[in-house]
Amino acid sequence: MTLAHAVSHADGQVTIVLAGEADIAGRDMLRDVLFDAVAERPARITVDVRGLVFIDATSIAALIAARRAALHHGCAFVVTNTRGQVRRVLGITGVLTTLTRTQLPRQATDQAG
């Protein structure tokens, strides 16, 4: 199964819906989709992972890098609808709370200082 995505734009927000397997085979596409959204500098980026059945370390790294870039550029970033293997892996790796909590850019700046 490959990684599929759909991107929608509404009211200054970008929503990316992912489905399939987020593994090394889809790494470049995932990074491109995420960083294209960051480049638009919307107020908020939501990554809906309800359709993912698998996620690996390369995809988690892409999500973390995109979140960091989004916050740096003043965009809120959140991953939603985690379930099954994706939720377990994000939890085991210690990034579930970070990725699924809406953090505004100002909060990120305050915490970094």
UniProtKB/TrEMBL annotation:
Gene3D superfamilies tied to this protein: STAS domain (3.30.750.24)
Pfam families documented for this protein: STAS_2
Domain of life: Bacteria
Name of the protein in question: STAS domain-containing protein
STAS domain ranges (all copies): 3-113
Molecular function terms, GO-annotated: anti-sigma factor antagonist activity
